[in-house]
Batch of 3 targets.
Target 1
Amino acid sequence: MLFMVIEGFRDKQCDDAGQTGAAEARRWLGGVRLDIVCAGDLLLTGGGLLIVMTAMKGFVEAERDKDGLLGVHSVDHFGLVVPDLKAAEHFYSASGIDPVAIGDHLELRASISDHAWGKVTEGKRKHVNYLSFGAYAEDIPRFREHLKKVAVETITPPADMAGDGIWFLDHDGRPVEIKAAAKVSSDGKRQPRAGTAEARAVPLIPAPEVKPVRLAHLILFTQHIDRAIDFYTRVLGLRLSDRCGQTICFLHGVHGSDHHIIGFGHSDGPGLHHTSWEVDGVDAIGLGAKQMAGKGYCEGWGLGRHGAGSNYFHYIRDPWKSLLELTCDADYIPKGTTWCAADLDMAQAVMQWGPAPPADFGANYELQS
C-alpha cells in the first residue's frame, strides 16, 4: 500500500460518501479516478493508496504578510538573441505567436493580451541574454534588502533596459531582473474551451488557427543543478517542485503558479532548451503541430504527456535547434500549498505516455555554436 500525507484537508468535512475529501485528493492526484471513502482523517482508496489528511496551521498568504514569504510571482519575459531576426519572425509566426517589430527587436505576444513575453534581438549567436521576473510592488524594497542579506551584488542594467528593476547575475552569470509588475503567471488551472451539444467541439473546415495564450515556462541548461536550485530558491524565492537527481529540476512560484515557471537541465554549459507556450487544450496542441509542419517546421517530439507537471506536450525545433513546446493542462500549485517535491526517475518525469523522445532531445546545441 502506498502512503501519502496531504496537508490542509482535515478542516474540510467529509460527507457520508467521503466525496468532499475525495475531490481534494483527486486534485492532488491529477484527477485520477479512484474509489475513495472517508474514514475520519483518512481517505481509503481502492487503488491501494492511504491518504492522511492533516491541517496546515498558522499560514498567512505571502502578499498579505509583510514579514512573511518573499518571492517573485512570474517570469515576466525573457531576452533572446538569435543570428537571424527574419527567421525568428517566420518561426514564431508559424506557431501562432505574434512577433511585433519594435525598433531593432521583436516582442513576442500571445493571444490574450499585448504583454511582451519575449524580446528577440539579432546577434552573432543564439542565447538567452537576460531573464525578467515580476514581483509585487510592495515587495521590491524587501528584495533590495534581501539581496544584501544573501550577499548578491546588484549590477548596472544592460543597455536599452529602462525602468526601476533590480538587476544582478545568477549562478551562471546571466543577467536577471526583478521588477514591479502585474502577475502574469497562471492564477488557476486553465480549462480548455468548452464544447456544446449543438456544435462540434473542433470545427472541421477550415481548421482554426492555433494561437498560444501565454508563456507557460522555460527550461534552461546549466552545469550545476544544485546551484541553480539554491540560487533561484534562496535569492528569488521560488520553490522546488520536482527534480531528477542531477539531470533536471522544476521550480514554481509561492504566490500560485503552474508546476514550473522555470526549470534547469544539466549540460556542459548554459543554454536554452525550450520555451513552453500554453494553448487551449490537447486539440490545439495537435492542430498547432500540424500548423507548424505545414509551414516547414516538422522536426520535434509529441504528442505525449509529461510526468513532472502532468502537462500534455508537442515540441518543435526552432531554426537554431532549441525547442518550442505547445502545452496545456499542467499541474497548478496554489499559494499556501505545501507541495512535496519528489526526486523522480527521469523516464517517469519525461513521459507518462507518448512516442520515444528523439536521441538529441536533451542536446545543448549552443555549445556547438
Note: The chain has three domains: 2-54, 64-180, 214-368.
Target 2
Amino acid sequence: MALVLGLALVSAIAPAKQVRGATTWYVNPGESIQAAVDAASPGDTIIVRDGTYTENVDVNKDYLTIRSDNGAGTTLVQAANRDDHVFGVTADYVYISGFTVKGASGYQMAGIFISGLENNVSNNNVLMSSYGIYIKNSSNTTIESNSVDTDGIDLGTHGIYLDHSNNNIIAGNSVPRIHSTYGGIYLYYSEHNSLVSNTISSAGGICLVYSGNNALADNIVCSANLDGWGIDLVNSGNNTLTNSTISSHQRNFEVLGAASHNWWKFDLAISYTLLPSKSILLGNQRFL
C-alpha cells in the first residue's frame, strides 16, 4: 500500500498534518498499525481510530507516539500470532497509550514488550497474554495506570515483569487476576526502580528476586482467593517498603535467602488473615 503526501490522500493512512517537521498518521479499521509504523519517522504520532485490529506490531523506531483516538474501551489490538508480542518495542522514547491488548498467549509472550530507554506505557488494558507488560534491559521507562489481567491463560505467569531493568517507574497499575502465583509485579536482577500506588488482587503479589535498591510505597496487595504470597524479597537487599497494605495471602511478607538491609516502615499494614505463621521477616529492620 503506497503512502503519499499531497492534496489528495491516496492512502487512508497518509499523514493528516505536520507540526514542526513531525507528522501525525491516522489508522482506520481495516488498515494496519504496522504499516503506519513502517511509514513513520522519529518524532511522528500515530493515532488509531476506534475498532479492532488483528496484528502484531513491531516498533523499532525512536521517538514514536502510538495512541488510540478515544481510549482502551473502544480500541482493541489482538495478536494475529499468539507466539509473538502484540506490541514489541525495541526502540527508545516510544509512547504507547489507550489500547486494549490481548492474545499473546505463547510462552513468555507479552501484550506489551519493551526493550529500550525512556519509554512510556500508560492507560492500557492488557488481557489474556502470558506476560502482561514485559520490560527487558530497559531503563528510565514509565509504566503507569495500566490494567493487566491474564486469567484464563495457562501460561500466564506475570502481570508486569522487569528483567535486568533499572531506574524505572511502575505506578498506579492494577493487576486483578494472574493465572499463577508467580507474580503480579515481578523484578528479576532489576535495581533502583520505584513501585508506587499499584493494586494487586492476584494470588501472586510483588516479588523481587536478586533485585536491590528498589522503593515500594503505597501499594495494595490483597489476594482474592487466599493463596500465594503478598510481598516476597528473595536474595534482594537494600529495598525500602513504606505505607503498603498486604492481606489474605498464605504468606503475606517474606524475606528469604541472602536478603539483608531491607527496610520497612513500622506502621506497614500487614493483615495476617491466613496462616500468619508463614509470614516471616528475617535479618532485616523496621524503621519509625
Note: Confidence is low (pLDDT under 50) at residues 1-12, 14-19, 266-288.
Target 3
Amino acid sequence: MRRSLAIIGSGILLSSIAWASAPGSADKQPTPALEAKHRMFRAEQGRWMPLPDLVPAGGAMMVMDGDPSQGAADFYVRFPAGYGVPMHMHTPSERLYMSSGTLQVRMFDGETTALAKGSFVYVPSRKPHQMTCTGEQECLFYLHVAGVFDLHLVDDRGEVTRSWSAADATAPRQQAARAPRRR
C-alpha cells in the first residue's frame, strides 16, 4: 500500500514538473516588469525653462519624465555659479543627485552640507531647505519629486509666505491659507 502511494505521489510530482516546464506554460503568466514600456531621454530632446518666478531669475529646469502638474516627475536643474534659492519647501518629497558643480544645501534646522558630483540628498515632504551653487562652476543636478511639483517660500519661523504649484500653472501669489504647514 505504501509503495502504491509513493508511486502515485511520484507520478503526480513528475506530472506537475512536466506541466510547469512545458513549452508555452510559463508564457501564459504575464510578467509586469517585462510588459512595462521603457522610456529613454536624451538631453537634446528636452527644453530648458526658467524656474518659477517665485525664486530669483537665473535657474533653469528641464522635465525629463512625468508631468509635474499631475504627479511624480524627473527634472534636470541648472543653477549658475553663485545662484541660490531661498528657504523653501515642497509638498512632495524630493531626491537630488548631483551631476556637476557644488551645491550647498542648508536645512531649516541649520544642518548644512556641500554636495559635489555623485552626491545625493533626500528631502522629506514639507521640510524647509535652501540651496546655493557655490564655487566657479555651474551646478547641474537630477531632481525627482514624488508628486505634483510645488514651491513654498518660508520665513525665518518656517511659515509659508508665498506659494506656486505646477498644478495651477499660475503666477506666484499669496496663498498662506492654502499652503501646507511645516511639520
Note: The first strand starts at residue 49 and ends at 50.
